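Late entry, evening session. Most of the bench is empty. Finally got around to the prediction I had been postponing all week. Sequence below, unchanged from the version circulated by S.P.
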Amino acid sequence: MDMQELKDIIRLLKEEGLSEITVADGDQRVTVKRDLQAAPMPTASPAQPVLQSAPATSPEPASDATLNDREFTLTAPLVGTFYRRPSPDDEPFVAVGDVVQAGDTICLIEAMKVMNEIKAEEAGRIRQVLLDDGEMVDFGKTLFILERL
């Protein structure tokens, strides 16, 4: 990997507001991390609501209004393709009923040929997985419903 590619990865990390990014090219793998607490997060203007029709086979994601006080959601921090497993032959990172800790990787979102690890923000038990491998996600789309421990 040359210096320009590394600079492009760092730029992508900053532009997407990510704390960590891993790029793999053949046998070569590079992970870049940054401390988001030290750097201010960019503020986004509120997005206009977009009406979308979900396929009949997808479970209907619960809105925050339908969640009980012990449940919370994990949403997509960027636009890309959702993957539940590190590779097609591997087991999913998490399944319904699994307990995760803050910082555990629970899925991947591929954006611009870069696999971004999506980590649990707090400890919880997976109650519902709302997407299948290969589905496109938008920023803010609910990926998982979890129960607080």
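Two things to note before I forget:
Confidence is low (pLDDT under 50) at residues 38-60.
Strands lie at 20-25, 28-33, 71-75, 80-83, 99-100, 105-111, 114-119, 124-129, 136-137, 142-148.
Will write this up properly tomorrow.
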